[in-house]
């Protein structure tokens, strides 16, 4: 193999990518997925959080109350975002259906210290965004009522849990866990998956467009061509992942151990690219190769995620600085597996090239 | 009759071709991979997903506290004496000394604290479940009854607030008839042991099971809860439907896309084009097998879930839409990599378009934009009416037809084998979709049909800007939505100017702008977007759909926007499109800002 020839092929593919602006699509796609998932997890989730929602919503919700008097009424009085109305049950539910009420509670006549539980009935609108909001607000009220009832019945309890006193007034959000535990591994690994799909396109295209013979009539050998393509796909991975890390950092999301993260992604990504190369060399036809590869990808990723200290988990640990030295061991294992795959790919590509020469 | 037979011949031929090329080589490996997938899924279910392992460091002085987080892999637990913990407190995210919890004062510390709080409440529930007197530990149970809102189309259309907060002292009185109700009994229908078991499985609940639950039968216990179990019913459940119903369809569409692409490789399709069969018949024949397979797959999935086959009705236009866009992408992409990225990008967009409105399921008007909502309704057992079906699917039928039409008119040698760049190619596609004899009418229709796409992109912008600080997000949203609308309105004109430079006479310019403005407004009105502002409960909705309140003002605005772009096109040709767009966007945004003045 000649390093210069590999470089020539890599440059050719890179300029092809650049001319088609496909890479732009790839980045756009990733941006889209990122913002979509962030909206799902952070955006909508914060809508459920009454405190975050307060900035957007100053609405007072009307709740209907039917049935017997209970300490629940006093719990409601503590809230300024829920207004309780005494209603007849049937009328209340009818008003709920017309959206004049946000919820209706029915309280039975069970005494607080009875043997059986107090069974409230809560009427809500089905599958409605507003119901979800009401649900959160009601939960607080009902938890207060539950604590009161538990107090009344406490002499009937036998064992008590270990007590923990949590500091007051520190309200965390899910943002941190979402960003570091999901978004960062997702964003950083997406380029690896994209590159693996890309290598299949690059290789099968040479076959299906019948450009292979022209290419091989130059001094470039088949093996050099394959490795040139692998090279360009591999280089794109840390490049894109690095851009993500820089962008996140620019948004105030500091990431520890960025170089190590890029190393893990580059190593794992090379493995995926080699897998894609093997599949593409076997089928030499895009539809079949992409189909088999995407199925194989699901298997590989699912398997990796089920193993403790998998590369994705290590990226999470590295980004929050809890990885320790263990990640070097995993990197070694991944590199070893990738080396084996590289050897297999080279051997297979040689065989394919020989068959082509004797066959054609 | 001869058309029909040639369609069938091509369909059979297509089926044979794809079966022989795919079947022999791929099937054995695909079966093997499928078995592997089942095995790995089992393995993953047993081992759990280890993504967030070891995110937080927890220091404790009591092994009993360590047991609280034993099942939570996010915590790495260190045990030390109280003074030792306090001395090294900066090495931990959370420490627990003598039952007091201290958290590091940063994002990670707060996040760890929240995770610990959740684990703790799970642990408290677990202890309570073990009590011999269950109803002393859980004295309060809530029976959830969900009722259907009976708001009809007309009510929302006339702008009535959804769930308006009354400020009066007396309770609201229903307008409609009140159905008699027997008060629910205070007796509990389940035995304490059943409830105990339910509580136990509930604490072991993973996010994954709640998604699989919606496809399994209801035991009745899901609606009977303790207050701490009252988690908001996330409206995301429908995303599982995307995975179940839409993904297989998307995969099959890929094969069709590839089949179209293959015709263009090495000019294979030339032979097909030289036959007397019309392009329309060729494409129909080529797409029939895939259409049939997709319908079959959807039917099998439906039956496997024990659902009614009526689900296929709303899925059909979605399938058509997938096919139509696969056709266009297969015809437009220059290389495999372009094909890959276009198709992934496109499918992500469509998936979110399908999924997004279902979040608002049952707040009818908006949610029904997505046919998937009808699937949700049908699965819930509520069904849907013919009017709802028409409302929800007509966009998909219409856009598919438009795309198919564009595909058929462009299925010529000139277009198929040209190596133009992507955007000029797409412009050619648009241009040949505009009728030569009635260009003005075509322009109006094009504008009307672009509205669903515009709506979708605007929704995406809302998503993008949602997390930004307030004034910035507003301004960005105003600018972006104005730009998108102006872009959609002027795209037809731009394509026309490129292909027929002499078209833009003054008369055509004014008439074209008027028709486009009219077409766009009608399209907007049909979608009834105004209702969305009431649902989101925020100022965001107001910006997007501001122009729907008074009719003649938005018409004038749309007209002015198109006119500006058209003038630029007339003066400077297609090169001035960008500048024209920018000017029109600024005018549009200024108008919106002016009307938003009260809100800012």
TrEMBL record, chain A:
<protein>
    <submittedName>
        <fullName>ABC transporter permease</fullName>
    </submittedName>
</protein>
<feature type="domain" description="ABC-2 type transporter transmembrane">
    <location>
        <begin position="23"/>
        <end position="310"/>
    </location>
</feature>
<keyword id="KW-0812">Transmembrane</keyword>
<feature type="transmembrane region" description="Helical">
    <location>
        <begin position="288"/>
        <end position="307"/>
    </location>
</feature>
<feature type="transmembrane region" description="Helical">
    <location>
        <begin position="261"/>
        <end position="281"/>
    </location>
</feature>
<feature type="transmembrane region" description="Helical">
    <location>
        <begin position="235"/>
        <end position="255"/>
    </location>
</feature>
<keyword id="KW-0472">Membrane</keyword>
<feature type="transmembrane region" description="Helical">
    <location>
        <begin position="178"/>
        <end position="200"/>
    </location>
</feature>
<feature type="transmembrane region" description="Helical">
    <location>
        <begin position="21"/>
        <end position="48"/>
    </location>
</feature>
<keyword id="KW-1133">Transmembrane helix</keyword>
<dbReference type="InterPro" id="IPR013525">
    <property type="entry name" value="ABC2_TM"/>
</dbReference>
<feature type="transmembrane region" description="Helical">
    <location>
        <begin position="327"/>
        <end position="349"/>
    </location>
</feature>
<dbReference type="Pfam" id="PF12698">
    <property type="entry name" value="ABC2_membrane_3"/>
</dbReference>
From TrEMBL, chain B:
<feature type="transmembrane region" description="Helical">
    <location>
        <begin position="509"/>
        <end position="530"/>
    </location>
</feature>
<feature type="transmembrane region" description="Helical">
    <location>
        <begin position="341"/>
        <end position="369"/>
    </location>
</feature>
<feature type="transmembrane region" description="Helical">
    <location>
        <begin position="281"/>
        <end position="303"/>
    </location>
</feature>
<feature type="transmembrane region" description="Helical">
    <location>
        <begin position="440"/>
        <end position="466"/>
    </location>
</feature>
<feature type="region of interest" description="Disordered">
    <location>
        <begin position="157"/>
        <end position="178"/>
    </location>
</feature>
<feature type="transmembrane region" description="Helical">
    <location>
        <begin position="550"/>
        <end position="569"/>
    </location>
</feature>
<feature type="transmembrane region" description="Helical">
    <location>
        <begin position="309"/>
        <end position="329"/>
    </location>
</feature>
<keyword id="KW-0812">Transmembrane</keyword>
<feature type="transmembrane region" description="Helical">
    <location>
        <begin position="239"/>
        <end position="260"/>
    </location>
</feature>
<dbReference type="InterPro" id="IPR013525">
    <property type="entry name" value="ABC2_TM"/>
</dbReference>
<feature type="transmembrane region" description="Helical">
    <location>
        <begin position="576"/>
        <end position="594"/>
    </location>
</feature>
<protein>
    <submittedName>
        <fullName>ABC transporter permease</fullName>
    </submittedName>
</protein>
<dbReference type="Pfam" id="PF12698">
    <property type="entry name" value="ABC2_membrane_3"/>
</dbReference>
<feature type="transmembrane region" description="Helical">
    <location>
        <begin position="472"/>
        <end position="497"/>
    </location>
</feature>
<feature type="domain" description="ABC-2 type transporter transmembrane">
    <location>
        <begin position="119"/>
        <end position="375"/>
    </location>
</feature>
<feature type="transmembrane region" description="Helical">
    <location>
        <begin position="389"/>
        <end position="408"/>
    </location>
</feature>
<keyword id="KW-0472">Membrane</keyword>
<keyword id="KW-1133">Transmembrane helix</keyword>
